[in-house]
Amino acid sequence: MEELQKAIAVHGLTVSTNPEKGRCLITTKHFSPGDVIIFQEPYASVPTNSSGSRCDRCFASNDLKKCSACQVPWYCSSKCQKLEWKLHRLECQALKGLSKDRRQSLTPSIRVMVRLYFRRKLQTEKVIPVTATDNYNLVEALVDHVSDIDEKQLVLYSQMANLVNLILQWPNINIKEVAQNFSKLACNAHTICDSELRPLGTGLYPVVSIINHSCLPNSVLVFEGNLAVVRAVEPIPVGTEVLISYIEMAGSTATRQKALEEQYLFVCTCSRCIRVGLYEDIKESAILEGFRCKDDKCNGFLLRDPDDKGFICQQCGFLRNMEEITKIAREVKIIEEKASASLALENYLEAITMYKQVELLQLNLYHSFSINLLRTREGLLKVLTGLKNWEEALTYCRLTIPVYKILISCIYAGVYPVIHPLLGLQYYTCGKLEWFLGDTENTIKSLTNAVDILRITHGAHTSFIKDLVAMLEEARAEAAYKLSDDD
Ligand SMILES: C[S@@+](CC[C@H](N)C(=O)[O-])C[C@H]1O[C@@H](n2cnc3c(N)ncnc32)[C@H](O)[C@@H]1O
């Protein structure tokens, strides 16, 4: 711990303890928006199968070659393969002992655990270096919440631990400790995402894992390859706790608290959650997940009527009948299920038709700033972009931006922090679509907005931002050329 404190002190940080949250990371210097607070390589990480094949080292998806011996990991280059070799040499021998079917069906959690043990072995035998921020003691210090887990989950962790044992074949392995480590993974591992926040893999970053959660955080966690980088999204004075969000922040307090309790086993008492039950919290939740007024011109939010006949608009007093609401909600559910089945079968046109029906029903059902409607439109945007239907995709992209802006600024304390990557990325998507459609003027506006936000969350000197700035420069040059041509 002393060594860790020394190592992070130079970055303006210290580890402290809080009676309610356990360890926490506190600033000892001022951080401005965009400043890197901390960065870390994973102790163990693997790509997830759902994102397609990816390099085990850097998560790239191009020019991949499989390990010819065990046929499990992919590498994008001999450089990445060499960097992974000390670890993979052990992993490779162990994996070869399994049947081909079993090898191919290993879950990311099992693979991360196997890698964690091999890494510990390599560090113990001094084959790879141990540092103050890269050592197994930091894994040991992670919370596991074993005493809060139900019996069924514990049985599952023991079964997973037995599979790890089968792969490692170590005579003295402590199965109980492996099961406990699965519990640690559940509340400490991070989903590794690309710059556009698409999930690529999973990794354990024991120093980053000291950072606690807030539903209105002052920092954001992003990834560059598999390097975890935490940046400030607002000014953080000396002596402040560094906080990130573990979950999607756009949800009612009940939804957020349920997600945090289920996955991370704690009751959140952050600045947003302590408002639970207050009028402002009830209103925010009713806007995010509740119903719309039956008067088209009214933008009021609805609360359950005390007689349970339906929901009453808090602005104009109209009652929306429970039966009508239940009927539409049921219809939405049925069509959504069919649409997602069509999507899974790659029947994209059929899926689009159905999602548009869902959108229409939701427009009639939910408040205009509802996150349910937002997610349906984002889904349509994704499928339409995949089909290269730029025009319609742009229409949906533009419909989502005002909702993000409202989520940032207008609902009380803000559902998202002022600087949030999702709004930046939405501007980025909008700008790219406008560029494809030859709308240079709007491309410049959208990409400028994107750069303003993403250079803070993603770092001004990353290749993602450099490419984005280059695209903006190109659009500006084209606009200037068009202007001179018109003259
Ligand atoms: C990734 S760890 C964070 C570091 C942790 N405090 C520690 O001592 O190692 C996640 C765990 O920290 C605690 N935690 C994080 N954010 C919290 C919060 N806002 N309120 C209460 N507990 C919190 C919970 O026990 C949660 O399962």
From TrEMBL:
Coiled coil region boundaries: none
One Pfam family hit: SET
Key word Nucleotide-binding present: no
UniProt-listed SMART domains: SET
GO terms, molecular function: zinc ion binding
Chain ranges of the MYND-type domain: 55-92
UniProt xrefs under PANTHER family: EG:BACR7C10.4 PROTEIN, HISTONE-LYSINE N-METHYLTRANSFERASE SMYD
Protein name as it appears in the record: Histone-lysine N-methyltransferase ASHR1
Organism: Coptis chinensis
